[in-house]
Specification:
- One of its GO terms (molecular function) is RNA binding.
- InterPro entries: RNase_T2-like, RNase_T2-like_sf, RNase_T2_His_AS_1, RNase_T2_prok.
- It is a single chain.
- This protein folds into two domains: 45 residues; 196 residues, Alpha-Beta Complex (Ribonuclease Rh, Chain A), CATH 3.90.730.10.
- The protein contains eleven helices and six strands.
- The radius of gyration is 20 Å and the shape is globular.
- By secondary structure, the protein is of the alpha+beta class.
- Helix 1 runs antiparallel to helix 2.
- The strands form two sheets. It has a four-stranded antiparallel beta sheet. A two-stranded antiparallel ribbon has the order 3-6.
- The longest helix is centred in the first third of the chain and has 22 residues.
Length: 271
């Protein structure tokens, strides 16, 4: 060989991929048995199918930034917003407090989200089309791919903690918006950038009223009847904010009625 270089044996790549497939099958069995979160298995399956980086391996040398579509990294004003379908009435932007998810799930929590380098505060749970009466469309037929590609996910990974969650949100909610997959996530980023995050939350028991007030105080035009704080039996989980299709804050009584009824759910510190 020129320069004394050794030719890489082609069967090594096949063997490596076979080992990944075997590890994936084992992980799938653990997920079905409830021993690991199914979302983590879905992340790894999507990565394997698309040939991308897996958390079962070391990090890739290819940066996410190099694969990120520019139109998913930023928005440039309301005039550039995608135009959604007329089949629903308004949006709900669901923001999840990531430390609550990690504390609640413990060892079952997704390692991508709760491991070292994971998100520290609010992340996007989803952007949901809603009807005024409180119902919402879901799982609509679509000609778009059901899975979110690594390239598309690279443009939103700072918002949505795992590719499995991104795929779930697209299939359940995004397919009912009349938008392409890329435009749905463009709209998700635009909605996220509309909202300012308060900095005086977390660190113990926090009343839902205090959490609401913190968001209302830093977001001009947002009223108490335009958002809802949700919780599980112990932790504050989501803040759900209602927006019209131009991403203006609006009242949404049906969403507001579903707010947390605990007096002081826990809101763990940023890790």
């Amino acid at each position: 060989m020129p320069g004394g270089q050794k030719r890489r044996r082609p069967e090594l790549g096949v063997r490596f991929r076979s080992k990944r497939l075997l590890a994936l099958l084992v992980l799938g069995g653990l997920a079905l048995a409830g021993l690991v979160p199914y979302q983590f298995f879905e992340d790894e399956l999507a990565t394997f199918v698309q040939g991308g980086e897996s958390s079962l391996e070391g990090p890739s040398s290819t940066s996410a930034e190099a694969r990120t579509p520019d139109d998913l990294r930023s928005t440039t004003g309301d005039r550039d917003l995608p135009r959604p379908s007329d089949e629903f009435d308004f949006w709900v932007l669901a923001l999840s407090w990531s430390p609550s998810y990690c504390a609640s799930e413990g060892e079952r929590a997704n390692r991508r989200q709760c491991g070292q380098g994971g998100p520290k505060g609010f992340v996007v749970h989803g952007l949901w089309p809603q009807y005024r009466g409180g119902r919402y469309p879901s799982d609509c037929p679509s000609s778009e791919p059901g899975r979110v590609s690594q390239q598309v996910y690279a443009g939103i990974r700072d918002l949505i903690p795992t590719i499995g969650l991104a795929g779930h949100e697209w299939r359940k909610h995004g397919t009912c918006t009349g938008l392409s997959q890329t435009d749905y996530f463009r709209m998700t980023r635009a909605a996220y950038e509309k909202v300012r995050m308060p900095t005086n939350l977390a660190g113990g028991a926090v009343s839902p009223a205090k959490a609401e007030e913190a968001f209302v105080r830093v977001n001009r035009g947002l009223e108490h009847n335009g958002l809802a704080v949700t919780c599980d039996r112990r932790y504050l989980r989501d803040v759900r904010i209602c927006l019209d299709k131009a991403l203006n804050f609006i009242a949404c009584p049906a969403v507001d009625r579903r707010a947390c009824n605990l007096k002081q759910p826990l809101m763990p510190n940023r890790r």
